[in-house]
Amino acid sequence: MAFVISKGASSSSFTHQPKNFDVFLSFRGQDSRHGFVSHLYEALQLKGIHTFINDKPRGEEISEELLKTIENSMMSIIIFSKNYASSTWCLDELVKIVECKKNDQLVRPIFYKVDPSELCNQNGKFRKALAKHEKNIKDNKKVQRWKIALQEATNISGWHYKHSSRKIRFIQGIVEEISNSKLNCKPLFVAQYPVGIDYRVKSILSDIESNDAHMIGIYGPSGIGKTTIAKAIFNRICDRFDGFCYLENFREKSRTNDGVIELQETLLFEISRDKNLKVGNKSRGINMIKERLFFRRILLVLDDVDKWVQIENLLGRCDWFAVGSKIIITTKDKHLVATLGKCFSTYEVKELDEDEAHELFSMHAFQSNKPKKDYLELATQIIQYAKGIPLALVIMGADLCGRTRPEWKNGIDKYKRISNKEIQKVLEISYEGLDEVVQNIFLDIACFFKGFSKMYVMDILDSCNLNPNYGIQKLMDKSLIRVDQYGKLLMHDLLQKMGKDIVQRESPQLPGKRSRLWRYEDVLNVLIENTGSEKIRGIMICSPESSKIQLEPKCLEKMKNLKFLMVSNVDICGNLEYLPNGLRVLDWRGFPLSSLPSNFRPQKLTILNMPESWVIMFKILERIQCRSLTHLNFQSCQYIRELPDLSNATPNIKQLNLCECVKLVEVHDSVGCLDKLESWDLTGCVELQILPRCIMMKSLKFLILYECKRVEWFPDIPKEMENLKFLSLAYTAIRVLPSSFGNLIGIERLDIGSYLYSCHLPTSIYKLQCLRKLVLHGSVKFPKDMEIGSQELCNSYGGFSKCGFLMLNFLKKLTYFHISEKCLLLGSENLSFQDGIMRFNGLDFLLIEDSKFLKKIPKLPESIRSVYAPNCIWLNLQSLRKLLLQFGRNLGLPPNMKCSGVKGNVLVDWHLHQIDYSSQLPLSKFFLIEEELRPTLDAYLIDFGERYNIIVPEKKIPKWFNHQSTESSISFWVGPEFPTFAFCIAFRLVPLKDIYANNDKCGSLCDDIISWICVVNILTNGHKRPFMRQPIFQCLKCDHLWFYGVPHSQLQQKFGDLMQGDRNHVEISCKISHWTSEFGNFAPVIARMGAHVECICPQNSIIIPNNS
Fold first, then answer.
1. E-state strands within 940-1039
2. What is the mean pLDDT of residues 348-365?
3. Cβ 1069 vs Cβ 962: under 8 Å
4. Which residue is catalytic, options 71, 93, 248, 521?
5. What is the 3-state secondary structure (H, E, C) of 434-446?
6. Which residue, among 153, 165, 71, has the nearest Cα to 108 in the 3D structure?
7. pLDDT tens digit string along 112-139?
8. Are 998 and 1007 within 8 A, CB to CB?
9. Residue 343: pLDDT band by 50, 70, 90 thresholds?
10. pLDDT per residue over 609-646, tens digit each?
11. Distance between CA atoms of 677 and 629, rounded to whole angstroms?
12. Strand partners, 823
């Protein structure tokens, strides 16, 4: 399949342009022209080996034409004779030949009546010749290059012709070996347009060269470029081995004994060049291969392996190869490469980035490295559809080449509806290799569960007896799905389309005969016409626009085997008299009835989601007595007033979502004893007053009571609960916590406090030794009756003393500390932290929101990594400078660095920056995207590793940043290793209405609340990669600076493989991908960028604004 090469990188190593000559002969004419060389030349020509011999008179300087001839030869043969080194012409040829060897040219020396050690040690006539050159030639560097070239050439294995040798037999042996070598070394075709492959190959080669692993596994899904990379590597390094062989279509050929024998004979011939070898049977072939290759350093590529037994059938065990041998396999199965043993390394092939995808597609669609201007928008749609799969980009580019814009539009629409057969054929290979159970899991995910939590889906599949532990891992090993950092199941769009096409082919004309239905038109047709059948396993009724439909009460009656029923954005009129008892998932947003059908008695129901519905809880539970139920979601159900006893109806419930049930008043005591409950969310239950008297829930991990404004008492905790990690009591009416609160020994994050009430913490809070994140809202009082030694510590925390902070051991372990607008301001209007905060020696994150009193931040503990002070407009910027220096030290950045490329000063006009209206979203849609970026409660506990962040109100980039730009990108030149750096972005809020045009004063808040999401990319030598997760900036009311830096080890790991030589160009770019304005008065723009980095920029290349 085709792949691509990154911008600015030479592709010659991979494309292997046709050569003018097979062999170039370098020799000293007076020693050997009319005897040995002429006979060798004739013998090569007779064998059909196109050989270059220079018959022209030689001058002092070698010509450019001759240098090009060397470059354009597949192989060079150097005939070292006694007077070879006396010719400067020969020595110049030699330097060029050694240079070409580094670019993969084959080179072999012949030592003609000279001892190789004489060249190696540069003794005898070679020493005399070189000494003479040193005397006569002023350019000592040139003579040194000759010496080095001689030294390198003598280290290459070749032939030694002695005085006693029989010339004809010697020449015949050389010609035979060259003939075999030449035929064997014809480079493999890599790709028509090898764009982007260079750095991938370099990355694998660096791994191959840096360790002793003799097996290398290259894995990834179909169409991703594994074969292309393997061929490029083979071309690049095959001449370094005693023998080499590339076996393609390995999986197909390994299916039969005859196929295995054919592979064994091919391997023996490719390396030994003996056409007479026949293995007879598989077992004998294994022994023959081992006997004949045992002492050889070989390179073997097995392309497209899917089972370890295929390798064993070919080679037996793989532990007998000679030291230095390399076996490279390509596979779709990640698990296979993990079973290769101790001496192996792996490489996962990733999708192309956006720039690479544009270039590859454009080369096939336009024969240019970029789209035509009037086709740019259409080309971008293709890029987004293909999502970086080279196979899809190549096929669709070739298909659309030369077509008109209307034809392009029709083609794109067709791709979205009907998969391209060529692409489909390749992608389905992985699917066809799965057993039936795993195929069913794949189709369920493709049709219904892509983007859902892995654990959620596993519960569903387990209830269907599909063994999800094995099946999902198998799909991950085959690269058909992946799991993101939040535990969501993800699948490439083309693979999802493939899965859906497989289901549609079950019955192209009759949707009611298919196993799964998700297209609204098909579902509507089946339900209205009542053409359903027992074959239907799942239905998703989801209209693209909110709509009403009238259905028969028993429209689902024919679907006896229905497992999944999901309904949303549809108002179904009429009564519902039948639901299949075999349902595992009933997910119906806006369910129109108060109860379920009277004849519905599910035994294996696992998921019951009915958000925004009319249901009444006790009526629902009358119909459902189901031990298999694990997930209940009644979010925003306005008719639920009481949560009844769940211990009999749903004893194994894991997740209970009652968010925004604004009429809920009471929760039954039994709920506090649900052993399996892991997540209980009561956010926004504003009428809730009565909770269980005690909580004994050994599995509970998350308990959210955020904005339960009438909850005054927290339940007793009679036993230790080590699994509860996140507890939110923010904006409740709780004033006092029970003394048993200390039994929450595993808690890592606590949100507590209210602006209306003062919350007093019990002394037992000192037991919370795992607490890492403390978020305080309003007034929260710590107990004051503690002493350490004989000294009471009411004043131990300086500026915190008025707020009741004591030097508590557990507080020293805090990594996250959040102070909101009115928090900790009891009796003080001057919120200036004193040195007491240094005692929080584990503090990682300090967040101070909307404070009008915060004037400075003191020296913070060395553990601090992030300081957020959004909308704190009176903050003294001297604090920022000190913090920059502290973070710079932690990152290993010198405090003062200058750039030689600074050009001078230029005035900056803030108002030149254009607002991107295309990325503006209404609040509701922005929150949906934000929810996707932080999809689970686990996101509140994730530690994203060592990284340094600062967000403060300010307009100017500090002078500490030695590179600055007035655009949304900044670039610099660096040396051979990816550098440590920190960058800074100045965000400006630009008025959308004239009446706000003068709201430009530093220290003033705008009449709006703005939130946005950014995308930050690093472009290294033309190759773009995302730098980080998309950062979210929330509820900002003025201009802000954002500082970001990560340690050198992380940068080197992520971008080090993109470095090329001693000079490398790096560009950091930032784009606001989505933004929203609560009142529509202002919009965010990127006004400036800065970078602090040690550079090698050329002079007069950088602009520093004069007011920085």
1. 948-953, 963-965, 969-974, 981-991, 1010-1020, 1023-1026, 1032-1036
2. 89
3. no
4. 93
5. CCHHHHHHHHHHH
6. 153
7. 888 888 887 888 888 888 888 888 887 7
8. no
9. low
10. 999 999 888 888 877 888 899 999 999 999 999 999 99
11. 11
12. none
**How far lies 20's CA from each of 73, 75, 507, 978, in Å?**
6, 11, 57, 39
pLDDT at residue number 805: 36
Tally of CB atoms within 10 A around 189: 12
Cα–Cα distance measured from residue 804 to residue 1092, given in angstroms and rounded to the nearest whole number:
40
Q: Where are the alpha helices (DSSP H) in 892-949?
A: 923-933
Alpha helix stretches (DSSP H) within 843-954: 877-891, 923-933
> Over the stretch 551-592, which tens digit does the pLDDT of each residue have?
888 889 999 999 999 999 888 877 888 999 999 999 999 998
| Separation CA 902–CA 964 (nearest Å) | 9
d(CA 236, CA 240): 9
DSSP character string of 111-132: EESS-HHHHHTT-HHHHHHHHH
For the chain, the first-to-last Cα distance in angstroms comes to 51
Which pLDDT score is estimated for 806?
34
At residue 966, what are phi and psi to the nearest 5 degrees?
-100, 15
φ, ψ for residue 221 (rounded to 5)? -70, 170
C-alpha 846/C-alpha 856 separation (Å) is 13
User: Strand 1064-1077 to strand 969-974: parallel, antiparallel, or no bridges (unpaired)?
Assistant: antiparallel
Task: Indicate if the pLDDT at residue 370 is higher than 60.
Answer: yes
Is 931 considered catalytic here? no
pLDDT of residue 182: 53
Tens digits of residue pLDDT in 256-268: 888 888 898 888 8
Contact 846, 868 (CB under 8 A): yes
Residue 1062 pLDDT class (50, 70, 90 cuts): confident
Highest mean pLDDT among 202-216, 590-604, 902-916: 590-604
Judged by DSSP in three states, 679 sits in: strand
Residue 81, both tokens = 């004779």
1082 pairs with which residues across the strands? Answer: 991
For residues 710 and 685, the answer to whether their CB atoms sit within 8 Å is no
Q: What is the mean pLDDT of the chain?
A: 83
More confident residue, 1054 or 1069: 1069
CA distance 539 to 859: 59
How far apart are the C-alpha atoms of 1019 and 1024, rounded to whole Å? 4
Does pLDDT of 196 surpass 90?
Answer: no
Q: Is 542 helix (H, G, I), strand (E, B) or coil?
A: strand
Tokens of 193: 């347009």
Q: For residues 844-872, give the mean pLDDT.
A: 80
The DSSP 8-state label assigned to residue 810 in this structure reads G
- Residue 210: Cβ within 10 Å count: 9
Determine how β-strand 106-112 pairs with β-strand 159-161.
parallel
CB 1105 within 8 A of CB 906: yes
- What is the predicted pLDDT for the residue at 65? 87
Between residues 389 and 794, the one the model is more confident about? 389
Counting every residue, how long is the chain?
Answer: 1108
Q: What does the alpha-carbon distance between residue 742 and residue 766 come to, in Å, rounded to a whole number?
A: 7
Q: Residue 433 in contact with residue 306, Cβ under 8 Å?
A: yes
Amino acid of residue 402: G
Is residue 343 a contact partner of residue 213, using CB atoms and an 8 Å limit? yes
Query: Strand locations in 764-877, DSSP E?
Result: 773-776, 779-781, 787-788, 791-792, 816-819, 845-848, 866-868
Q: State pLDDT tens for residues 509-522.
A: 999 999 999 999 99
What letters, b where the CB count within 10 A reaches 16 and e where it falls short, cover 714-738?
Answer: bbbbeeebeebbbbbbbbbbbeebb
